[in-house]
Amino acid sequence: MQLTWFTDYGLRLLLFAAAHPDRRVTVAEVASAYQISRDHLMKVSQRLTQLEMIHATRGRGGGLQLAQDPASLRLGAVVRALEPDMNLVECFSPLTNTCRISAACRLKGALLRARRAFLDSLDEHSLADVVGDPEALRALWASGPAPPDEASQRP
Amino acid sequence: MQLTWFTDYGLRLLLFAAAHPDRRVTVAEVASAYQISRDHLMKVSQRLTQLEMIHATRGRGGGLQLAQDPASLRLGAVVRALEPDMNLVECFSPLTNTCRISAACRLKGALLRARRAFLDSLDEHSLADVVGDPEALRALWASGPAPPDEASQRP
User: Fold this and answer.
1) What is the CATH number of domain B5-84+127-143?
2) Is A75 exposed, middle or buried (0-12, 13-18, 19+ CB in 10 A)?
3) What pLDDT, in 10s, does the model give residues A55-77?
4) Are the beta carbons of B67 and B61 closer than 8 angstroms?
């Protein structure tokens, strides 16, 4: 069970913008801060603009800024909007379902409740909550590549 | 956000076995009941056997039966065991993480809590809970292909 890179990058971009409330940020600098693809991030920023979660300004001095109050933007809302598909299993969508028992299946109900618990848990946090101390985050973004993890140091 | 077909089929197989407590079931009949791939289901049954969730008996009269009390088998435990990867985003695993801020990132904490809420919600249900009325399920498995959904009837 994974979120798509699209949602992952969307959350990262929103976090970066929220941690720089005093100015516009650019796709290039966000890509550099996380060492991720600029092209991928561009697609995500276009979607976030469509969703009116960020506002994009073109031209010299242009860039991206949050279009919503980060204290009001809930993480569950972001995930719901960015994930292409929250259908945990085939029977969640009438377009894909082929299962004979879905009308009476309690397994489906249990999975639907679990998805609700997941999103409700995310909705307990606003974007402002997860920014916390923006200075600490800004220092980490500026710190260069992440140190290799212990696991990758094993011979 | 989706579960893999592997987990989906595993849950279906366990449900089928739990709804037929008086006898062994075969991969062929489970595949036929759900109209899903017998080969795929065979791989899932091998994994469930390794996990000691089902017991497989070879030869004439052989087949699969639950190896655990369905009232004790929690859905969260099944999903944890069958999903190849519960790493919602890159930073959940030290093997894949490249993010500079993960040490201080509250977004990661929020996603970890959401995953916990998902699995805890599933753990509220045992396999026996979701079987409910096995006769109703058996009637549906025997009923032939699922009727086309409304959506697919649109011209």
Assistant:
1) 1.10.10.10
2) buried
3) 999 988 899 999 999 999 999 99
4) no
Alpha-carbon distance A142 to nearest alpha carbon in chain B (angstroms): 9
For helices A75-82 and A5-18, the axis angle rounded to 10 degrees is 140
Burial tier of A131 (Cβ tally within 10 Å: 0-12, 13-18, 19+): buried
Q: How far apart are CA B49 and CA B26, in angstroms?
A: 13
Is residue A44 within 8 angstroms of chain B, CB to CB? no
Q: Give yes or no for B153 touching A (CB within 8 A).
A: no
What CATH number belongs to A5-143? Answer: 1.10.10.10
Other C-beta atoms closer than 10 Å to the C-beta of A70 total 18
> To probe the interface with A, which of B75, B107, B131, B137 has the most A CB atoms within 10 Å?
B107
Q: Which two tokens stand for residue B111?
A: 């996603």
Asked casually if ipTM beats, i.e. exceeds, 0.95, the reply is no
The model's pTM: 0.88
Q: How far apart are CA B101 and CA A74, in angstroms?
A: 21
B155 touches chain A (CB under 8 A): no
Contact with chain B for residue A15, Cβ under 8 A:
yes
> B-chain residues within 8 Å CB-CB of A137?
101, 104-105
B19 with B58: CB under 8 angstroms?
A: no
